[in-house]
Structures are given as structure tokens and as C-alpha cells.
Amino acid sequence: MTSKILIVGAGIAGLSVAQWLTRFGIDFEIVEKRSSEAITHTGLVLPFNAVRELKALDVLERLEGRYFEASTITYSKVTGKVIKTASLTEPPFENDQFIALNREDLDTAMLEGLERKVRYNTEILTVEHGDDAVNITCTNELLNGSYDLLIAADGISSLVRQKNFEGQEMLLDHNVIGWRFVSPFPEHSLQPLHMVGQTDLFTVYPISDDMLYCYGHVYEDLNDIVLGENAHENIKKIFSGYGGPVPYILSQIDDIEILTNRLKSVVKPCFFDRRVVFVGDAANGCSPLIQQGVAMALADSRCLADALAMQNVDQALITYQEKRERKVERTIHFADAPLSHLQNMQSWLGRGLRDLKIRAAGPPDVNAWKKIATDRLFLS
Ligand SMILES: Cc1cc2nc3c(=O)[nH]c(=O)nc-3n(C[C@H](O)[C@H](O)[C@H](O)COP(=O)(O)OP(=O)(O)OC[C@H]3O[C@@H](n4cnc5c(N)ncnc54)[C@H](O)[C@@H]3O)c2cc1C
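Above: inputs. Below: predicted complex with flavin-adenine dinucleotide.
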């Protein structure tokens, strides 16, 4: 019997499920509340495991010439004084790639072949469980009705998850405000740089020879600045004492679009409930500190599609959860753990210990990536 499947959300998770299902000859509908013209002007950092997933999906080749491949990552103090530089090309990464790129380029590459399939300006409104089915309404009446499976790929603030678990607190707010933007930086020869302050952090990732993807954050409660109101002014105030490439970047940001987010994570990852299954941030959204959001969205999607290609819907959902649960939980732990120590960085002792640890044991994100590359759990 052919199952009737609806994917909600055409972000990275929704599009990758759609790509895999297409490849397996499984039909689906896919709805997206944005318009087809809406563009997210930001960058993305994709560590080795995200790149492996893009290769499996044949998407990396579509991005040829549109990404920067990093070979090292440096942690420094806000002055620019180096704490530690780590290699991204030595074992266990000698056969891998770490890249950074424009989010728009990834979205375009992920959409290839699905352009006519995605129903834009279509928002899911209600979700109700039925017998071996799920009933939905959305802003396109033609799609209302009953589906054998609803794939919720609608992001960290997932409406499907909210409706499904009504009344339950689904998101944890880390009290950290983050800013993301892409800035010109002519003729640089930079490699990724993390500048660590007190509770503030500024990271720079080249995405081409003359553009940088920048990310900054600060712990909210310790700041006398009203955050979230004027991103450009706040960034200038918080990072004004920084050295290295930051003064030039700050001199360029006035006309640049800046995305502001509160950093949030799911309280607990969720995989499926009856005929609703969650992928990507809707299942496992977490802090961006080890840049695993895209990698998890892609791995969730491949795992779910594989299972749907081999098994009936109910068995496939069980397989999906069994294969992903422990990996996802461990990844969220790696991503969120540094945030719980952020307040300690106000004291010179806290900062001294942090810097000592980075110098002796290596940058925390590189260590997390190494664990993901070598731990038996992730290799299974
Ligand atoms: C500050 C910050 C920096 C980050 N940096 C990185 C990074 O460098 N590398 C990395 O790997 N990850 C990063 N992430 C995480 C990454 O962006 C996400 O993990 C990834 O985008 C998840 O993809 P997704 O498809 O699950 O969700 P999304 O990309 O959010 O897509 C969800 C889609 O669903 C649509 N939608 C929502 N509700 C509805 C509805 N009701 N009906 C229909 N459609 C709907 C939305 O319009 C959207 O298109 C970062 C996150 C933050 C907050």
C-alpha cells in the first residue's frame, strides 16, 4: 500500500527528507509557510559529519566553488592573542572536509529537483491524531485531510510539536543572545577564529576570499544593555574592545542584515508520537556551539527515509528512534554543556581555567567533533 505522507517545513531537514524520499520513489506532499523568495542572509559552518551527509545526498557537488574549506581553527583572547590553534585536517579528520558557506547557497542546492514540489505560503494550522493516521488543516484547503504520516520538519519553534504536546514546556532558554551576519572582508587569508571574552564570544568563519560569516553572543542577565532591540548598536557596544579582524567588521555592519536569536534547546528530544514524526530542529534543536544542527537534520532525514523505504510506517518510526536517540542525546549534551559554565566566565579564575583547558586539551568544539568522529556510538 502506498502511504500518504506530508512534510511540514522546507528547511534543511524537510528538503533532505524530500530528497531521500524522491530517491527511494516514495511520494509525499511538502508545505512551507515562507514564500519562495524569502532568503535567509546568514552563513553556516558545516563540520565533517554534515559534509559527509551532503556528499551522500550528492549535494556537495552542487556547491562546488561556493564554500570555504577550513584547515585550522584558532581560539584567542579578545585582544587577538592566540590561546590555541587546532588542525582540522589531521587524524581523525584526514579524509574529511570542514566547510563554511552562505545559507542561501545550501538552501538552493538542497532544493534542486524539488522546486515544483514545495508548496510555499502554506502553513500548517492544526494537527489531530486519528486511527493509524493524522488529520491536518493548513492554509491550502486542497491539502486538508488525513495522512498516514506527518513529518514535522518545522524548526525549533515547531508548531506541530507544540500542538502535539500541548501544555508541556518544550524549549529551554539559555539566556544567551546570539547574532549572525555575513560581512565583507576584502582579500583576507583568515582561517576560523573564536575570540573568547567573559560571557561574550565572537567567531569568524571565512565563506569566500572576501566574505566572512560572523557569530557573536553574550549572556543576557549580566549585561546592562537592553538586548534584542537594536542589533547593530548592541554588537558595536559588546564587541568594541575586541582586536583582530573585529574592528574592521564592526566598521562594515551598518547596512548589513543581522539575525538575532535567543539560544534555545529542546527540553528533551522527541522522535515520534503515533503517526507524527519529528526531524531536524523540531526533534532536537540545540545550541549552535558545535555546529551540529545541519548535521543532525541531515542524519535524521536519511535515517527516517531509509527506514520508510524498508519497513511499514509503524516499524520504520521505531527503527528511526532506535537508531537516532542516543546519538542525538549525546550531541545535544556536547552542544549545550559549555553554556552552563558561561556565568563562571565573569571571574578571572573562571576565564583562566577555561584558557588553560583550551591550551592543554584543545578547543571544546574540536574535541566534541573528535568524539563524534571516533566514538563507537556514532560509528554504529
Ligand atoms: C545562532 C545560530 C547559529 C547557527 N549556526 C549553525 C551552523 O553554523 N551550523 C549548523 O549546522 N547549524 C547551525 N545552527 C542550527 C541550524 O540553523 C539548524 O539546526 C537547522 O537550520 C535546522 O534545520 P530545520 O530544517 O530543522 O529547521 P529550519 O531551518 O528552521 O526550517 C524549518 C522550516 O519550517 C518552516 N515552518 C515553520 N513552521 C511552519 C508551519 N507551521 N507550516 C509550514 N512551514 C513551517 C519554516 O519557515 C522553515 O523553512 C544555528 C542556529 C542558530 C540559532
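The longest helix spans residues 313-340.
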